[in-house]
Amino acid sequence: MRKIRLVEVKSELAAGTRGASLGIDAMKVASLGKKSNFFTRFEPVRVKTENSLLFEDPQYNFAKYGEGVYTVLGRVSDHIAELRSEELFPIVLAGDHSTAAGTICGIKKAHPNKRLGVVWIDAHADFHSPYTTPSGNMHGMPLAMVTGIDNEECEVNDVEEETEALWERIKEIGGNGAKINPSDVVFIGVRDTEKAEDHIMEKHGIRNFKTEEVHKKGVKAIAAEVLEVLKDCDQIYISFDVDSLDTSVSVGTGTPVPNGLFKDQAAELNIELIKDTRVCCWELVEVNPTLDAGNKMAENAFDILEATTESLIDNF
């Protein structure tokens, strides 16, 4: 059986709405309500954050709190690289989605010669760079960070030299150059994108299994197709953003989008995907209990977390 480590990253520097740093503790509260011993079963690794920077104004307009994001991503990368080098399976619970870049960098740092595929279950493509971002919030940039894509052909922002230098440093976390090929990214549920992201998806032929397709074909068929797209990858990382869920499930996340996955679909999807022996890490992000009523999103997210972990244990 794979030995699991929980990795807690309570960073919310890169989000546009405050509160994602509380998501992990909200899931712990949910687990108590369900009388679950989940959080006592696995040894935790807690990554130091830089959330105190939020009491100051952001330094860069198009990479808000970028220096702090850079620091946290480096820490995440180092922790994940160490765990993967020891053949441990990280289950990462994080605040905002930018930290996924650190996770990917750490996986690649531990095994630089293995081709890494990414399953991105999300309402958003998260392929912006400082040159294209409409908000400057870096939780919309992790896939650009790890693919090294600036997308300057879609540039809309006049990016300052200091921001450009920071962006170059971020792209080098965990080793020189791109960590993954954009063609080795598979989206599930992405439905809220800007033209710059659409350009990248079309240019690199990135497959997006939209919500309607999941409804029509069923979860098991979608999971099989996803894994077929990534058949040439040596390792697979799954990133589950709770805003992939429909707003009827909950609004307890920073950027909710209607017409998403239902809870049972999301649970079954993660349960099926994590059965693949190439999966080396699973991550859950963006639970924000300050935007919710009755801790609903945290409860739903915890149910998916627990079911996915049990699938991992049962199959290995």
List the helices and strands and how they pair.
Blueprint: E1 4-9, H1 23-33, H2 38-41, E2 44-47, H3 66-85, E3 89-94, H4 99-110, E4 116-121, H5 142-147, H6 161-171, E5 185-188, H7 195-203, E6 207-209, H8 211-217, H9 219-229, E7 235-241, H10 263-273, E8 279-285, H11 296-315
Parallel strand pairs: 1-2, 1-3, 3-8, 4-5, 4-7, 5-6, 7-8
Helix pairs in contact: 1-11, 3-4, 3-6, 8-9, 9-10, 10-11
Explain the overall architecture:
It is a single chain. This protein is an alpha/beta fold. The chain has a single domain (4-315), classed as Ureohydrolase domain (Arginase, Chain A), CATH 3.40.800. The chain is built from eleven helices and eight strands. It has helices spanning 23-33, 38-41, 66-85, 99-110, 142-147, 161-171, 195-203, 211-217, 219-229, 263-273, 296-315, and strands at residues 4-9, 44-47, 89-94, 116-121, 185-188, 207-209, 235-241, 279-285. Strands 2-1-3-8-7-4-5-6 form an eight-stranded parallel sheet, sandwiched between helices. Strand 5, helix 7 and strand 6 (207-209) form a beta-alpha-beta unit.
- Helix count from the secondary structure assignment: 11
For this structure, what is the CATH homologous superfamily?
Ureohydrolase domain
Structural class: alpha/beta
Largest sheet: 8 strands, parallel
Rounded mean pLDDT score: 97
Q: List segments where confidence is low: pLDDT < 50 over at least 5 consecutive residues.
A: none
Order of helices and strands: EHHEHEHEHHEHEHHEHEH
